[in-house]
Design goal:
single chain; about 280 residues; alpha/beta; Rossmann fold; 6-phosphogluconate dehydrogenase C-terminal fold; 8 strands; globular; binds nicotinamide-adenine-dinucleotide; binds prephenic acid; NAD; oxidoreductase; EC 1.3.1.12
Length: about 280
């Protein structure tokens, strides 16, 4: 079996590293020349190629920003793909990808979202065990072909991932709260500190707490811009929920309702018991 990976960054590169030996050959495709060279020298893929090479592979991984995934699907739908070709996308939102996937290749697509990653991007960020013991959400699986379902699940098992099935609508709602809103909050924290006049002095005090809370603010703005745009309505709801809690905390502090504030914090302590 052969594989083509479109996007040789954190997600595509890590996939290549983890799947060496499983595929007879892995071909890497990327619009960034340096990323192609880096991917080769890091051994993320066997060779680099172009989109046309995808006509001859058995598995295609789309690991590029969401709008790029959608336009790749449109291009792939006009190509002569292998009959049972399995296309797996790693996009962080699922509804628009599924809705905009051309009908003639819908059975080829297994719409997936690995709940794994870091704040870094590009081939240098690739990690061989990134996917191990992590959740892979697979959406609207019944719309994928039987061969494609089986192949994708086998690949996720090989990655040592735990598969969770969900409807795309539900996935996008959940992802807004568990991933997209925390990124917005982290960017907000970073911008709030950067706006302080004595920011350099403030950050000299940064220890674990600030580093944890601001880590996500290092993430790639292009990729996250796409995610926020695609999940706008759910993201707005999650920001509203967060704002309402922040407002509650602010009011309790203003009114010096310390016991109430303590109870509110103790409620927050409960979260990790269910994680
Ligand atoms: N970073 C994460 O934590 C994470 C986690 C889960 C899913 N995802 C999703 O995975 C996808 C890839 O994310 P990443 O973190 O690997 O990004 P990345 O920036 O590390 O890598 C993307 C790579 O794709 C290339 N690229 C971008 N657009 C392209 C195009 N149209 N054609 C060819 N090459 C193109 C870039 O040059 C880059 O090498 C995104 O859809 C993202 O939403 C990311
Ligand atoms: O751990 C991180 O740094 C991540 O950002 C990974 C993370 C997340 O947990 O929000 C980011 C985007 C996803 O689509 C899935 C996972």
């Amino acid at each position: 079996m052969t594989c083509g990976i479109v996007g040789l960054g954190l997600m595509g590169g890590s996939f290549g590293l983890a799947m060496r030996g499983y595929f007879k050959e892995i071909i890497g495709i990327d619009h960034n020349e340096k990323h192609k060279k880096d991917a080769l020298s890091l051994g993320l893929v066997d060779k680099v190629g172009s989109f046309e090479d995808l006509s001859n592979v058995d598995v295609i991984i789309l690991a590029i920003p969401i709008r790029g995934i959608i336009s790749s699907l449109k291009t792939l739908s006009k190509m002569n793909l292998k009959e049972n070709c399995t296309i797996i996308d790693f996009g962080s939102t699922k509804e628009s990808i599924i809705n905009e996937c051309p009908a003639n290749i819908r059975k080829n697509l297994v719409a997936s979202h690995p709940m794994a990653g870091t704040e870094y991007s590009g081939p240098m960020a690739a990690i061989a065990d990134l996917y191990e013991n992590k959740i892979m959400v697979v959406c609207n699986l019944e719309e994928s072909g039987e061969t494609q379902r089986k192949r994708a699940i086998e690949i996720f098992e090989k990655l040592k991932m735990r598969v969770k099935y969900m409807e795309a609508k539900e996935h996008d709602r959940h992802a807004a709260f568990i991933s997209h809103m925390p990124h917005i909050v982290s960017f907000s924290i970073a911008n709030a500190v950067l706006k302080q006049e004595d920011k350099e002095h403030i950050v000299t005090l940064a220890a674990g707490g600030f580093r944890d809370m601001s880590r996500l603010a290092k993430s790639n703005a292009h990729m996250w811009g796409d995610i926020f745009k695609e999940n706008k309505s759910n993201l707005l709801d999650s920001i509203e929920a967060f704002k309402s809690e922040l407002k509650k905390a602010k009011e309790m502090i203003e009114k010096e309702e310390w016991d109430k504030l303590k109870t509110w914090m103790e409620t927050g302590n409960e979260l990790h018991k269910i994680m």
